[in-house]
Design goal:
By secondary structure, this protein is α/β, with parallel strands linked by helices. The protein has one domain: Rossmann fold, CATH 3.40.50.720. It contains 9 helices and 9 strands. A 7-stranded parallel β-sheet has the order 3-2-1-4-5-6-9, with helices on both faces. The chain starts with a strand and ends in a 5-residue tail after the last helix.
Length: 259
């Protein structure tokens, strides 16, 4: 089994690569725009888990990145059975103060590249009547939140896109799963250690290794979608009906952090 993991050099992508090698004995095609880190990860995983690893440096935010990667795989005779669309970016800005280049980068990476990779590798999987695709969305897909307007919109695309394809791909024995976690327990949000521990205890936040373990289990069981954490699951419907005054209050509190 060969698994293609995007954004594999660090963070959640590294967890996907590690657990696929360790727990599923999968060979790996690792893709990232961090060349040195990627090559080291590939070397380490191959040595530790006795799997074949291939490091492929690529900037997946480029318009033709998906086609280029797919054609390279075809040329090399690589048959991808598992596709993990994990690569992504996050920034927190007022929209009119965000450069067009950054907006384009996020939309290209989260929308076009995910859609194209799913289309290209998905067709081959359907023809073989075998395959798995996992796409990373977010609870923010249901939120109208100042500062992350482009991020949450792109994650909403991934969520609905993936759930729709679940029905299309299922008759071909190709399974597509979309994960929509809330906060992931990293230093991204700048929370104090005690608050991070509390968020994890309440299942509002989830450690990366636990998120990935759950995601892979859902994927290989053929589940359509998942939002980890009972409280996250419980409050998801409420996010669609958040009162305007709450959003304006949040905007006021978050304004100093937008840049």
């Amino acid at each position: 089994m060969l698994s293609l993991v995007t954004g594999a050099s660090s963070g959640i992508g590294l967890q996907y690569a590690t657990q696929l090698a360790r727990d599923y004995h999968s060979d790996l095609l690792l893709v990232s725009n961090q060349k040195e880190e990627l090559e080291q990860v590939a070397k380490d995983l191959a040595a530790t888990y006795n799997v074949t690893t291939i490091a492929r440096y690529a900037d997946l935010s480029l318009p033709d990145a998906a086609e280029t990667l797919y054609e390279w795989c075809k040329k090399e005779g690589l048959e991808v059975e598992v596709l993990i669309n994990n690569a992504g970016v996050f920034f927190f800005n007022k929209y009119c103060e965000t450069s067009l280049k950054r907006i384009e980068l996020m939309l290209q990476l989260h929308v076009m590249t995910v859609a194209k990779l799913t289309r290209l590798f998905g067709e081959d999987m359907c023809a073989r009547r075998r395959g798995y695709i996992l796409n990373m969305s977010s609870m923010s897909a249901w939120m109208a939140m100042p500062g992350i307007q482009t991020y949450n919109a792109s994650k909403a695309f991934i969520y609905n896109f993936s759930k729709s394809l679940w029905y299309e791909f299922k008759p071909y024995n190709v399974h597509i799963t979309v994960m929509a976690p809330g906060a992931v327990d990293t230093g991204l949000f700048g929370l104090a250690p005690n608050l991070r521990k509390l968020a994890v205890a309440l299942t509002v936040s989830i450690p990366p290794e636990k998120l990935v373990k759950r995601a892979l289990k859902k994927l290989f069981k053929g589940k359509k979608a998942d939002t980890p954490g009972f409280l996250n699951w419980l409050f998801t419907p409420l996010l669609k009906h958040t009162p305007d005054w709450v959003l304006f209050f949040a905007q006021k509190k978050l304004a100093p952090f937008m840049h």
